[in-house]
């Protein structure tokens, strides 16, 4: 009887033990799943492949990964097909991630305020002042016609056009709408009206220079004098030597337009004409302006963004002879291109010497190192303002691993939207120019024509943040550079300063060549210090 009474009790005891074991296993499974979920990174990986570069950054990215893990609980990527302010019709089908807002990153070395990365330099109350002086008059009766054949890429042509407006004013000529370069490396067939707003250009300059669309028919067969204007020439050259040609000719043709006018020591009103031409009259055609605005809006959907002028296209590398990081096959291809391009005068180039002097662009890998050194996290949206990158994914892989949100006009638009511009290098460059000027931060990997033009325009519009890499300085720092990138570039972010003059000791043309170009920095000629809120609009006009 006693054994019969104990049996139910033993059975219940066994059941309890089994239940406890099952419960313990369940708790362990749940805990394990929780631990695994913590290990999942919300932000994309920033692992960097092994680099052979002298200023490799081995640890900064790892620190950022720790920072991002802390952020994962605060803000996650939102999955939606279109940016918040764009309709599904406006957004390209491949835009699949919504914008990221700014964060405050707390790292092991203290607080890194995200907002500081986007903070604009103080303009120190410098504002545009391009209105003519009180003695400035409308153009006198024209003495003849100035034809202009521009040369180079978009931004070289832009600067040349603005200089020729000033030259036309000096020699009292009627300016025929300039002819764009169709024979350069890019073989672009675009006409002036395809790239620029022709009617606006003519009307905006009415008080400075008479501009017409075509040479009058009765002068089409007239004898023209073709002139290669002397580089960096001053007022006396044009007023005395060139203007004297009106005594024999009705039409003067400028064979080239680039760097034909001095940067400095010109009358204030002539300098202001250049700025009015560049920043007011020479705006892009309506279709380019509209597409440019659309690109800016779509980048804005990702929050504050960097426009990176990644000058790493085939033509630039071939012209400069820069082959660092390229294979032997790629270097030979570039050498062949340079050898076969007749109007490139220098053929034999020492790539190592070019790089040591700071004459080469940063490679995409070096750009990633540079951005990380400045403190920009891997979720930073970046617009690539460039043509086709030489080597494609092969040379972009490391930069993309650090900064996955790499956008471009091709990625932000559908094929149909971009099709009208695709086969026209100048029009595609114009789209990049607009986004670069409007970006929160502009960083050029090389100080070429576009970099200089965009920097000057951003200075004119209020000294927007522009970080210009000290390429030579970075190389000289070597392996120590990882901790010094931010320090080296504290004063290279677009703050107001006067345009630099020639390098001490240089003579002749080298002296002019060493000067900072007028359109890189229009201060002091076209930017004035605002004294008070009641300052007369003719002295300093706000834009």
Automatic annotation (TrEMBL):
Single Gene Ontology MF annotation: glycosyltransferase activity
Chain intervals for the UniProt region annotation (Disordered): 490-509
Subcellular location: Membrane
Membrane topology, from the record: Single-pass type II membrane protein
GO cellular component terms attached to this protein's record: cytoplasm; membrane
Record keywords: Carbohydrate metabolism, Fucose metabolism, Glycoprotein, Glycosyltransferase, Membrane, Signal-anchor, Transferase, Transmembrane, Transmembrane helix
Keyword Membrane among UniProt keywords: yes
GO BP terms, alphabetized: fucose metabolic process
InterPro entries, per the entry: FucosylTrfase_pln (IPR024709), GDP-Fuc_O-FucTrfase (IPR019378)
Signal sequence bounds: none
Entry-linked Pfam families: O-FucT
Pathway assignment: Glycan metabolism
UniProt family annotation: Belongs to the glycosyltransferase GT106 family.
PANTHER family assigned: O-FUCOSYLTRANSFERASE 7, OS02G0726500 PROTEIN-RELATED
Listed name of the protein: O-fucosyltransferase family protein
Organism this protein belongs to: Gossypium aridum
């Amino acid at each position: 009887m006693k054994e019969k009474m104990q049996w139910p009790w033993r059975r219940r005891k066994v059941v309890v033990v089994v239940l406890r074991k099952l419960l313990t296993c369940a708790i362990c499974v749940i805990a394990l799943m929780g631990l695994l979920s913590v290990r999942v990174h919300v932000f994309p990986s920033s692992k960097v492949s092994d680099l052979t570069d002298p200023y490799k950054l081995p640890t900064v990215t790892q620190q950022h990964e720790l920072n991002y893990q802390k952020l994962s609980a605060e803000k996650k990527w939102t999955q939606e097909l279109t940016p918040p302010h764009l309709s599904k019709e406006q957004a390209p089908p491949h835009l699949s991630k919504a914008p990221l807002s700014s964060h405050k990153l707390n790292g092991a070395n203290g607080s890194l305020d995200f907002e500081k990365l986007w903070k604009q330099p103080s303009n120190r109350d410098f504002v545009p002042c391009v209105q003519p002086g009180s003695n400035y008059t409308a153009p006198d009766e024209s003495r003849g016609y100035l034809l202009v054949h521009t040369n180079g890429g978009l931004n070289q042509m832009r600067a040349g056009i603005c200089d020729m407006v000033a030259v036309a004013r000096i020699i009292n000529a009627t300016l025929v709408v300039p002819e764009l370069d169709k024979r350069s490396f890019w073989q672009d067939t675009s006409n002036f009206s395809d790239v620029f707003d022709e009617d606006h250009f003519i009307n905006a300059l009415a008080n400075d220079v008479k501009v017409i669309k075509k040479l009058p028919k009765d002068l089409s067969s007239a004898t023209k004098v073709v002139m290669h204007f002397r580089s960096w020439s001053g007022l006396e050259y044009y007023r005395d030597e060139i203007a004297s040609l009106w005594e024999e000719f009705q039409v003067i043709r400028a064979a080239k337009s680039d760097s034909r006018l001095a940067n400095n020591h010109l009358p204030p009103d002539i300098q202001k004409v250049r700025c009015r031409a560049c920043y007011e009259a020479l705006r892009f055609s309506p279709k380019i302006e509209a597409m440019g605005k659309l690109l800016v809006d779509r980048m804005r959907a990702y929050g504050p963004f960097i426009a990176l002028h990644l000058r790493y296209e085939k033509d630039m590398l071939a012209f400069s002879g820069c082959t660092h990081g390229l294979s032997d096959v790629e270097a030979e291809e570039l050498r062949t291109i340079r050898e076969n391009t007749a109007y490139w005068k220098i053929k034999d180039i020492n790539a190592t010497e070019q790089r040591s002097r700071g004459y080469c662009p940063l490679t995409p890998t070096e750009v990633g190192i540079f951005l990380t050194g400045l403190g920009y996290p891997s979720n930073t949206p970046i617009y690539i303002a460039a043509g086709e990158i030489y080597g494609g994914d092969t040379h972009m892989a490391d930069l993309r691993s650090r900064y996955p949100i790499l956008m471009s006009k091709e990625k932000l638009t559908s094929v149909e939207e971009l099709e009208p511009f695709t086969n026209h290098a100048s029009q595609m460059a114009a789209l990049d120019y607009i986004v670069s000027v409007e970006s929160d931060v502009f960083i050029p990997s090389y100080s070429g024509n576009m970099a200089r033009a965009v920097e000057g325009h951003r200075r004119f519009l209020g000294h927007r943040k522009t970080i210009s890499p000290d390429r030579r300085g970075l190389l000289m720092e070597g392996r120590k550079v990882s901790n010094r990138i931010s320090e080296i570039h504290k004063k290279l972010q677009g703050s107001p300063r006067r345009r630099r003059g020639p390098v001490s000791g240089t003579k002749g043309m080298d002296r002019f060549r060493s000067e900072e170009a007028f359109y890189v920095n229009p201060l002091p000629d076209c930017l004035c210090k605002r004294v008070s809120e009641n300052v007369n609009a003719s002295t300093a006009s706000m834009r």
